[in-house]
């Protein structure tokens, strides 16, 4: 921004000098120093007004974030998260969330997005958070090298950007331990991405249609003020989700989606950068 302003100033000054010299040549009595000073003064005044305005906006945002953090520290909060979408079940999950006025976080697989762009749009329009879950969900391809890992996530990030979604929150397939070692985490940090694991594993992938077992599995792990629940974008989640929502409501939890402003660290490595 500063460079642009100075370039504009230099351009105006050059234009003014060239114009004033032309005037002086034709009629030196018409030469007026205000021809130089007035445009520059206007730009300086505009710049002086712009800076305090931006500082005020930043200060207001900072106060809002501080208030959110203070409220967050006092509340019992659960984050419902869904991996491996979008699928044909995503709209049904969204219907259940909407009926309960809940926003959640969805970690999408890049290769599953084609043909389901409308589902991604609905996620965005409904106000849910969209996260990165790699392009392939293929552990062997992802962990060929730190570069191959981060390239997949950047590719998915670009794909989502083309659909109007800006995100830097990610989840590693099968969780960050043990494969997301220091070299991989360095690449994630340099790419300005975050990693979110979970505090509760629903094991829905294991129990599938045994809804009561899934709900009991979640219930047995609830012990923290802030919980992050791992579920999957599948039919068995559609069946168990109402029971899981009731479980947390009965225990006094409120529901939130991922919020980057809170800096809520949830990675198995406890890496503070992520």
From TrEMBL:
Instruction: State what protein this is by name.
Output: Polysaccharide deacetylase
Question: Mind telling me which InterPro entries this protein's record contains?
Answer: Glyco_hydro/deAcase_b/a-brl, NODB_dom, Polysacc_deacetylase_ArnD
Species, as recorded: Neobacillus pocheonensis
Q: Which PANTHER family does the protein's record reference?
A: GLYCOSYL TRANSFERASE-RELATED (PTHR10587), POLYSACCHARIDE DEACETYLASE YHEN-RELATED (PTHR10587:SF125)
Question: Where's the NodB homology domain?
Answer: 76-256
Family annotation (SUPFAM superfamilies):
Glycoside hydrolase/deacetylase
């Amino acid at each position: 921004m500063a460079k642009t302003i100075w370039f504009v100033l230099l351009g105006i000054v050059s234009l003014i000098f060239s114009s004033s010299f032309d005037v002086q040549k034709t009629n030196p009595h018409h030469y007026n120093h205000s021809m130089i000073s007035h445009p520059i003064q206007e730009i300086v005044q505009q710049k002086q007004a712009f800076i305090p305005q931006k500082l005020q906006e930043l200060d207001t945002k900072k106060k809002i974030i501080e208030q959110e953090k203070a409220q967050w520290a006092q509340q019992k909060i659960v984050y419902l998260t869904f991996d491996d979408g979008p699928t044909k079940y995503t709209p049904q999950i969204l219907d259940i969330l909407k009926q309960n006025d809940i926003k959640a976080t969805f970690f999408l697989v890049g290769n599953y997005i084609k043909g389901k762009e409308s589902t991604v749009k609905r996620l965005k329009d409904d106000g849910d958070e969209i996260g990165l879950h790699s392009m392939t969900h293929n552990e062997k391809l992802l962990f060929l090298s730190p570069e191959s890992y981060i390239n997949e996530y950047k590719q998915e990030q670009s794909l989502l950007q083309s659909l109007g979604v800006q995100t830097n929150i990610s989840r590693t397939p099968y969780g960050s331990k043990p494969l997301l070692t220091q070299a991989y985490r360095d690449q994630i940090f340099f790419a300005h991405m975050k990693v979110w694991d979970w505090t509760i594993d629903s094991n829905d992938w294991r129990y599938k249609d045994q809804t009561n077992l899934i709900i009991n599995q979640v219930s047995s792990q609830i012990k923290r003020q802030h919980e992050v629940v791992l579920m999957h974008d599948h039919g068995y989640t559609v069946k168990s989700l109402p029971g899981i929502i009731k479980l947390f409501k009965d225990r006094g939890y409120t529901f939130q989606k991922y919020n980057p402003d809170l800096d809520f660290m949830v990675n198995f490595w406890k890496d503070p950068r992520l």
